[in-house]
Amino acid sequence: MCHSKFSKPDHINGRPVLQPKSNQVPVLERRSSLKKVSPRSPTLSPKSSPISTASTRPSLSPPISPKLKSPKSSPLLKTRNNDKALNLTTELSPVKKAKKAGANNNSVKVEAPGSIAAKRREQVATMQEQRKLRIAHYGRTKSAKLEKKVVPIDSSSSTSTITQEENRCGYMTSNSDPVYVAYHDEEWGVPVHDDMMLFELLVLTAAQLGSDWTSALKKRQSFREAFSGFDAEVVAKFTEKKITSISADYSIDLSLIRGIVDNSKGVLQVKKEFGSFDKYLWRFVSHKPICTQYRSCHKVPFKTSKSETISKDMVKRGFRFVGPTIVYSFMQAAGLTNDHLITCPQHIQCTSRAISTS
After folding, report:
1. Is residue 154 in a domain?
2. CA 20 to 30 Å from 313, out of 35, 143, 151, 237?
3. Is the pTM of this model over 0.70?
4. What is the mean pLDDT of residues 260-265?
């Protein structure tokens, strides 16, 4: 009788349980009811794992252990992802392809158009061509090899002037005064050994104090007339009346005129001691001009230890307006030092003149 009332044992949570037939509910209805009731049950926590919910949920059918998805992807997905990555790398890196091709064939190098390396190679090639042009133009090497490439036969004068302006020292621009340009190209840095010319440059260097070389060069002719062609013997005999008249006639500062008169007296004393003003000055540089190798005007100093030494010695001998900065400017003007930039064509000309005179 008992066996007729009860159905076959069902397994709930892994244990056999007997239930009456009247209490049994179809499996589909039970499952749907459980799904509806499960979120309302207070026993379940939102953070509970699927394993725990499966263990607490009453069901007549034997529980099926849930299979968790492994983090590792299947081998088919791996192969597909690898294929996609390979396609992306081949599309995005044509330069790497070229490098691999170049590894197989060392004689051929292929680069992507517009790459940084290609632009850099073009820049280097243009720089090398410019360098060859300079060398051919300045005569450092035989220009016959590069004559056809660099210098055309019917080149206009405008292009030559443009190249000269580009190659001059950095402080020379297209707006520079023609007087100053001519002085730079013909006189500045050229070694001077004439006593009267050295005295003239010393006067002009003192005159440009507080202004600039352009204004001093424009007054050069008036200075020659005022100081008797820069004859030190005549200037040393100037009286106070002569000094005041020169200041009134030529608009020259009185202190500058008195300083020039004192310098003329110092030149005469130096001549008695060393034989000439030239020998006195050039002995400080061992009778050879100092040839610098500056590439930028910012590197050119305002004074050096050599100019400080000459300045101290001249001050002891009664010279005026001969500070280290003025003396260095005088050294540049008289050619005791060649401060033309190495890109300037006058740099080579001044060094060649220095070699010929020595």
Report:
1. no
2. 237
3. no
4. 96
